[in-house]
Amino acid sequence: MKKFLDLISEEMKQTFEAAGYDRELGKVTLSNRPDLCEYQCNGAMAGAKLYKKAPIMIANEVAERLSGSTVFSEVTAVAPGFLNCKVKESFITEYLSGMRTEDKFGMEMPENPKKVIIDYGGPNVAKPLHVGHLRSAIIGESIKRIVRYAGHDIIGDIHLGDWGLQMGLIITELKERQPDLVYFDENYEGEYPEEAPFTIADLGEIYPTASAKSKEDEAYKERALDATFKLQSGVRGHRALWKHIMDISVPDLKKNYANLNVDFELWKGESDVHDVIPGMAEKMKADGFAYMSEGALVVDVKEETDTKELPPCMILKSDGAALYTTTDLATIMERMKDYDPDLMIYLTDKRQALHFEQVFRCARKTKLVKPETEMIHIGFGTMNGKDGKPFKTREGGVMRLEVLIKEINDEMYRKITDNRDVSEEEARETASIVALSAIKYGDLSNQASKDYIFDIDKFTSFEGDTGPYILYTIVRIKSILNKYKEQGGSIAEDATFGLAGSESEKALMLELTKFNAVMETACAETAPHKVCAYIYDLANAFNKFYHETKILSEEDDAKKKGYIALLVLARDVLETCIDLLGFSAPERM
Questions:
Q1: Residue 282 contacts residue 327 (beta carbons within 8 Å)
Q2: Which pTM was predicted?
Q3: What is the CATH number of domain 4-87?
Q4: pLDDT tens digits along 8-35
Q5: CA-wise closest residue to 65 among 20, 24, 19
Q6: Cα 144 to chain centroid, rounded
């Protein structure tokens, strides 16, 4: 199905053309004065210069020709030359009927779907997820779902930090505490134990201890760097410890991401490309792109058009060690070999913008990617507390993600049990569903690049622009539909749209017609906040209609069936949208 606004514009364009004017003047937009009209066309204003004619004369000619339109119920020429339009109810119901029967509500699928890889995890293993990981997980998961819904083939990769200094720090601290472990005996040739000499809780304490020591004790840091080098060089005991760390950490990460309803198709890490780095570096040198500078291997990435200095991209440090840049480039090389994507999306804190500018330029210059391969970095802002500073615990530390989720779950549980009598089990289950909507919608309703205030009181409110308000609206619709079925109605058979009988009913219908355009834009601009804005408007339109309309007590059977059809479509569109944002609605609240 074509987008609703495109169909309206086509009617207007044909009329401009029939009147002897350029058809492109007939572009229709949403009205910026909804109190006066639903849509507007300003083409007569632009046409005045082209045709040396007063804009009101052009507008009057077009309006007159549209008097018998099957699309518009009213088109009025307004000085100095605007066209104010209202759409026929019959045209709207016909469009909604198409949405109800077509797959994905009639959204047009791309002729040539793109193959996309989105890199949106990036946690370091052996460290618990904290609030700093929240935005990449939430935004990345939603973008992945939106792009997939729009018809493209997309793969999500967590891109674990599993090969750097944090591994050396953990191994060093383990050696300090348990020097007699068989892993540190360089002469040992037997099999290593299957069970790790530590738990996930131990790791949660070992890493911060080791990290703090390395900042104060230079010799300790040197030992950690040496342990990292041994690990990356293939020393058996260090590799065995690394495997234990991975075997314990990854399941814990999966559990925590599952609590956020986030999943990845690929669980690859920096370690997966370690062995291809030497060959990549050698090829960059052989091809004349990489050269030695102060002992390090670098590639120049600055361009003549640059207005500010862009430093060279460092491939290997003077001691031969790889950097984040190196593993990112090697990962791009492997992704091209394994998947040949048309587009690679990277989602990180916006402070990494320079890093990705260097990486992308280096990948292009050294021909790791095809000329037509797209690479984009989406930099997100900071999640702040009410004081406007990065979100912390009450003690001032970085809050663990599971603690934040528990706090919001507990707050939602309190609100649910305050409002009504409900079993403990149902209250807890509902609270976790609604809490997830509060967290995700609270984040996604902001433009990704902007900082935002994480306000638990606001995000868990059932009123205003919040996740719980959206869910409450969906549950309200479900409740009405259930009562209709209890009265003997059949939703599947009775879903026949009627003509709008009120302004609020027509407004709800018009909001529903926007779905395809919103989804297309959200995909093209990788912008989940546009989906949030849409469902907030849709929820408001439904609630206004609900408060003004006696739905179940309507005596006119045909009119009641029209209401039910409208509710079914509103429910389905809203549930589709929240699924694309990464959360769901309970059956009741």
A1: no
A2: 0.95
A3: 3.30.1360.70
A4: 999 999 999 999 999 999 999 999 888 8
A5: 19
A6: 6
